Amino acid sequence: MTPFPVRAVPWVLTVGGAIGLLAAFVLAVEKIALLEDPDYVPSCSLNPVLSCGSIMRTPQAEVFGFPNPLLGIVGFAVVLTTGVALLAGARLPGWYWLGLHLGAGLGVLFTHWLAFESLYVIGALCPYCMVVWAVVIPVFWYTTLHNWQRDSRLRDLAVKYHGVVVIVWYLVLGGAVLQAFWTYWTG
Amino acid sequence: MSANSKVALVVVAVVAVVIGVVVSVTRNGSEDNPAGAQPAALVREDSHRLSTAPDGKVTVVEFLDLECGACGAAFPGVERLRAEYGDRVTFVLRYFPIPSHRNAELAAAAVEAAGQQGKLEEMYRMMYETQPSWAGQQVSHRDTFVGFARELGLDTAKFEAALDDPATMARVHADRDDGVTVGVQGTPTFFVNGTVFTGPPSYEGLKSAIDRELAR
After folding, report:
1. The domain that contains A38 carries what CATH number?
2. What is the four-CA torsion angle of A56, A59, A64, A65, rounded to 10 degrees?
3. What is the model's pTM?
4. CB contact under 8 A, A186 and B19
5. Number of structural domains, chain A?
């Protein structure tokens, strides 16, 4: 029988895709509002650290010459659609899964680079962006488990402790957030 | 319960305990400052006053990080307010360099060192006016700051000696410690007559808070 984490993939893609799509969409809308009115205070600018307004104004927010959330809208829409199609009973060929894996991998690399910039260069956090970081991780990880067909001890371990990997990943990221803004959180 | 959930729970529990211990240890160190000690820590005798009002009726204190973009964004508004209210309102500059900013402490020390040669305000302005060229980078901008000192006509040997003097950095840290004591959580944080200013630190926002105090 297919192991649970692999059976869970359609759900992870559906839920993860939906949340990611929503976050990216809100970010794009806020960006437009900010462009219309430079003094606009986005809904996620809560205080000096949790402040997406200051982040949206940085060059890192437009790495490829256009606002990053546009990438998120396109990418998460694909993830969501894939998840729903799988739930509806679709069977996808191997190359499709590879493409999804590649896209999710690039998403992980990109969001983690942005996370690093946010923590250590810009020095502020953007709540919606953090939602995206949080969603990209399971989407990538469960796609990996699905595509990891070749039997090995490592794969068995990964499948058995699939949730531990996600938790540890979250904790490392959370620890970095805590460390970077230590004086802020404890002051 | 599956092995997966068990291990995950144990990992979470261990991390939670570790963070809890670290937080309680650090808290104990700083809790000897009760809330009642606030006014004294807000403006000290040696705090830098950029403008001084003769009547001392209204005082604006800014805890700032020279590398922080939001502070740089607030800077022109503060300059405008100082130009308009400099004779009626005391403006106090307090350092609050945030650790994740690589050059924030050094920049504060550079302002402090320039102050020893009577050019504190000029260096403070220079830092914000040039901020995009040096902020947010993971390299030391010591040479850049020494260059600023040269541009301002300072004695660079004396400036560098001041920059290296541990007392200069201690002065910067003393400001930040006061900031923590009065509850500063990020930069820029403004206090208008002892009350923390909430809302975006724009020219208009600060102006209305100042006008309110002046009218009192």
Report:
1. 1.20.1440.130
2. 90
3. 0.58
4. no
5. 1
**Tell me, what's the pLDDT at A36?**
85
User: Above 50 in pLDDT, residue B36?
Assistant: no
Q: Inform me whether the pLDDT recorded for A16 exceeds 90.
A: yes
A158 touches chain B (CB under 8 A): no
Q: CB-based contact (8 Å) between A46 and chain B?
A: no
| Residue A186 Cα, gap to closest chain B Cα (Å) | 7
As given in the structure block, the two tokens for residue B119 are: 């050019």
Burial class of residue A5 in the structure, from the number of CB atoms within 10 Å of its CB (0-12 exposed, 13-18 middle, 19+ buried): buried
Spans of all domains in chain B: 53-215
Residues of A whose CB is below 8 A from B30: 186-187
Predicted ipTM? 0.71
Question: Are A51 and B70 a contacting pair at CB < 8 A?
Answer: yes
Sign of CA dihedral A144, A146, A148, A153: positive
With CB atoms and an 8 Å threshold, state whether B11 touches A164. Answer: yes
The tokens describing B65, both together, are 């990080």
Q: Which of A39, A161, A175 sits opposite B7 (nearest CB)?
A: A161
Q: Looking at the domain that runs over B53-215, which CATH code has it been given? A: 3.40.30.10
Longest dimension (CA), chain B: 72
Distance in angstroms (rounded) separating the CA atoms of residues A133 and A126: 11
Q: Residue B189: beta bridge partners?
A: B63
C-alpha distances (whole Å) from B210 to each of A139, B94, B214 are 51, 18, 6
B189 touching A, CB under 8 A? yes
Mean per-residue pLDDT, B61-87: 91
